[in-house]
Amino acid sequence: MKPLDPIVDLDARSFGRLSKAALANDSLRGALDHVTTEFADRREKALSSAPDWEVWREQARAVKAHTLASLDTYLAQFIERAESNGIQVHIARDREEACKLVGKILQQAQASTVVKSKSMVTEEIGLNEHLLALGLEPVETDLGEWIIQLAGEKPSHIIAPAIHRTRQDIGDLFHTELGVPETHDVEELTAIARRFLRTRFAEAEVGVSGVNFLVAETGSFLVLENEGNARLCTSLPKVHVAVTGIEKVIPRLGDLDVFLRLLPRSGTGQAMTTYQTLFSGPKTDPDSEGPEAIHLVLLDNGRSAQLSTPLEREALACIRCGACLNVCPVYKQVGGHAYGSVYPGPIGAVITPALAGQESAGNLPHASSLCGACRDVCPVKINLPELLLDLREKGDEADRGETWGFTGWSWVASRPRLNSLLGQILTRTLRLTQSSGFVGKCTSKLIGALVPPLRTWQAERVLPPMPTRSFRQLWKAGLDSEEPPA
Amino acid sequence: MDTITPQIGVATVELLRRAGCTVNFDPRQTCCGQPAFNSGHRAEACQVARGVLDSLGSGSDPIVVPSGSCAAMLQRLPSLFEEGEDHERARSVATRTRELSQFLVQDLEVTDLGARWPGKVTWHDACHTLRELDVHSEPRQLLSEVRDLEQIEAIGCDTCCGFGGTFAVKHADVSVAMADWKIRHIEKAGVKAVVSSDISCLLQLGGRLREMGSEVQALHLAEVLNTR
Amino acid sequence: MSNDQHRLLERVRDRLGGTQAPELPPVLRTSARSQGAETFCAALESVAGQVHRVTCSEDGLLVLRGLIADRGWNSIACSDSEFIQGWCERLGSICRSDFASNPIPREELLQMDAGLCTAQIGIADTGSLALCSEAERHRLVSLVPPSSVIVLFERDLVPDFATVFQRFEEDGLPTTLSFITGPSRTADIELTLTVGVHGPASVDVILIREADGASA
Q: How many C-beta atoms lie closer than 10 Å to residue A128's C-beta?
């Protein structure tokens, strides 16, 4: 098995570099256009038969807002009840601790093969890498996760990890990595996955899963899926290890209902996913079915840092549906890998700085045009654009050039007459650049050097012909006193 | 708008007069401060926006803005100036601010301005106009009353054009890719022009259309409505 | 509570800084339209499940015999429910039952053609089935074989998930509560829907109107 890339390929410049590469990849662009359109269409269709959608959204938002503002109470309740159910609850402060904990549990279970169902948190902590280093064999069983595991890649989407790959890519990958005859038929490819993974479920000593919701009232946790691999991972092996973030807790069993109405529709346009399993403990009778032990690892990794204000807490309400990715016009062009984080798109831009640190991820909030489409579709009404603005303000991503630029601009723009004068100079100069010939070319180069943003703009966009007089001048020259036209 | 696209201002003034309004313009205003605010430079944004408080902060006349993103920023001013007199003036500005099509259709209840513009056009829903001001049907109603004009809904009409303020320059290649995606659909719609109420969108889309040598124009709503 | 747990709670409390939490709204009581069999059938069929409606258990068994013949099944993994055992006795050697005292070995289960069990609850709104771990030994037989046959009684239909959760809030949860809504599926490749991945590729529900004596 190929060793995996680092979890986050992230630094202050990475979005620029990675998005450039993405834009040059025609196959990726085609896949993205198709997939984001499909996802968005399916969601629309699902909503058309959900007249109470806004009622559900508001309910979910309110439940999360309350829970996150009293997270200590609900976590305490959850832990107490889960443990009395026989679930062993472990706390991990950060990625390293989480990996070590899981590694220890696996070693104690004398595991050599581990089957995994889809878990974004295990991607976040780089669990597979850690397990490989311990000499264990982690086997991804979700089709999309298995594909990227074979390819040695990170997921490019929260719901559909391999969506950046076409069937041709996947067929070629299977042929190269598995030695199967070449096929690009989707059904045949899926059948290959089933064949290869079927026996692994039965061999594995431990199954690792993610968690969609922790229920405080009953000390239970819920896992949703469509493929059946999560059920297999958590039913066949002797030990079940679930890894999740502390923010996943909801207060009451009854609250699961509204989230089950929102998540499948938002994520994949389904009224309901195929399987939901609610775990409230390991078997009490040793002869019964299911694992002997259930371990639950609760991960912080920067989440508690987002509890300080109501706005920041909103980001923790995310139920990982991926809808914001599907409508994001930036994501549509560059895909998930451009963000350099396992959490891409709008939600990724908001939470990655808290998880990976301001230094490496501080530029992500700027990788957005702030169009607000994400806020419209978020099932828990996270005000993503507001969070992005907040992060831009709090961050120190601006290079000196930009800071000076804005300082200078604000100085000028608070002086109306000076502002007009400079505006005039600018338009006259630009008018010169718009003339052909030597003078035009010279002024172009000059102004480009003096005002770099202008040069960048004009590299690919043509400004309209510059006017001879400004609006202000026209107003003074008679526009102010014209009679209403007939 | 003042320096680069004054014709939009002129068209707006003429249009409002035709609708029976008396129009005033205070030359002390410069900018709403949005470019700085969106990039996280709150102090600089406030410094500039104070000019709006000075020039427009008193009085009771509606403030008509031919740009959705500016109108949305003006509505945000109370949260930038949270105390004292500034806050009062900011609130006054915010409550009186109306985007042009909002003002015409909702306030004046006018949709027919006697315009004539032959040809097919498609409307571009600028992000702030659509999502922060909730303006969707008003421009379409106005365009539907323009004689000889045929409106086509293009795929992606409500998808961001890619301007996004400093984003257009910071991530120019992505910004251009976003514009090009829209333009592909605009051209497929077979229109003569894409029309919007946001000047930055028009510079962005128009900028690419001109670069590509396209026949499709990028026009402001006021310009179309002011054509006879 | 362990030290680590205490530390986590302290850290969380600290970050929250004594903030006043907004009110928790009451659980939303949704207005599901019906709990009828028709709603259930339409919902399950819309996700590629199949429903066979019969009036009595005897007819249900006939349906099952029909499925066995049509699909060419040679081996059926059966749950330990009394009702299912009643059918198994009549079906003979094609059935292999999974008992706690005598479970079906893994290797054998992996090769069997179909699984047969009952569901404790049916959810009309979505065409879902709820399987309770303590009620019956059906977790693996409903999951491993590529075809799944599940018996449901109409009297066990409820309108929606909200009703189910309300019931368990009052009665207490089983250790594992499994919901199944149709056959397994994926769209991980180009978002093209494929039915039948790791879980069963076909789900046939035999929906019985009357419970004639035998309990589920």
A: 25
Residue B187 CA to residue B165 CA, distance in Å, equals 25
DSSP annotation of B80 reads H
Model pLDDT, residue A484: 52
Window C:82-141, CB contacts with A under 8 Å: 100-101, 103, 106-107, 110, 126, 128, 133, 137, 139-140
Taking the model in full, what pTM does it have?
0.94
CATH of B111-225, one of 3.30.1960.10, 3.40.50.2300, 3.90.180.10, 3.40.50.11810: 3.40.50.11810
CA A260 to mean position of chain CA atoms: 20
Residue A90 to residue C4, Cβ atoms within 8 A: yes
pLDDT in tens, A66-99: 999 999 999 999 999 999 999 999 999 999 999 9
Residue B123: both structure tokens together: 């409307």
Q: What is the pLDDT of residue C216?
A: 45
How confident is the model over A326-334, as a mean pLDDT? 96
Where helices occur in B58-198 by DSSP H, the ranges are 68-80, 84-96, 100-102, 127, 137-144, 167-170, 172-188
Contacts made by residues A10-14, CB under 8 angstroms, sequence distance 24+: A10/A340, A10/A341, A10/A352, A10/A356, A10/A360, A10/A361, A11/A340, A11/A360, A12/A359, A12/A360, A12/A362, A12/A363, A12/A397, A13/A363, A14/A340, A14/A363
Chain A, chain B: beta-carbon pairs less than 8 Å apart = 201
Judged by a CB distance cut-off of 8 A, whether residue A54 touches chain B is no
Look at B167 and A369 and tell me if their CB atoms are within 8 Å.
Answer: yes
pLDDT bin (cut points 50, 70, 90) of residue A12 is: low
Report, as ranges of residue numbers, the positions in chain B whose pLDDT lies below 50: none
Cα dist from A73 to A78, A126, A306, C10, whole Å: 9, 29, 17, 11
CA contacts within 13 A on the Cβ side of A139: 24
Nearest CA in chain C to A228: C199
Amino acid at B153: E
pLDDT classification of A439: cutoffs 50, 70, 90: confident
The residue among B102, B97, B58 whose CA lies nearest residue B77 is: B97
Instruction: List pLDDT tens digits, range A252-262.
Output: 999 999 999 99
Using the beta-carbon criterion (under 8 Å), do A366 and B167 form an inter-chain contact? yes
- The answer to whether the beta carbons of residues A222 and A276 sit under 8 Å apart is yes
**Touching chains, A (3+ CB pairs < 8 A):** B, C
Q: Quick check: A347 pLDDT over 90?
A: yes
State the smallest CA–CA distance between residue A368 and chain C in angstroms.
25
- Residue A478: CB partners within 8 Å, gap ≥ 6? none
Give the model's confidence band at A11: pLDDT under 50 very low, under 70 low, under 90 confident, else very high. Answer: low
Question: What amino acid is encoded at A131 in this protein?
Answer: L
Banded pLDDT at A472 (limits 50, 70, 90): confident
Under the banding of pLDDT at 50, 70 and 90, the label for residue A397 is low
ipTM computed for the complex? 0.96
For chain A, the structural domain boundaries read 14-306, 414-481
Note whether A254 contacts C165, CB cutoff 8 Å. Answer: yes
Domains of chain C listed by start with CATH number: 33-183+199-208 (3.40.50.10420)
Q: Which CATH number fits domain A14-306: 3.40.50.1100, 3.40.50.10420, 3.30.300.20, 1.10.760.10?
A: 3.40.50.10420
Interface test with A, best of C6, C23, C164, C198 (most A CBs within 10 A): C198
pLDDT at A6: 37
Interface list for B 54-93 with A (CB within 8 A): none
**What Cα–Cα distance (Å) separates residue A39 from each residue in A45, A322, A326, A471, B91?**
10, 9, 6, 45, 41
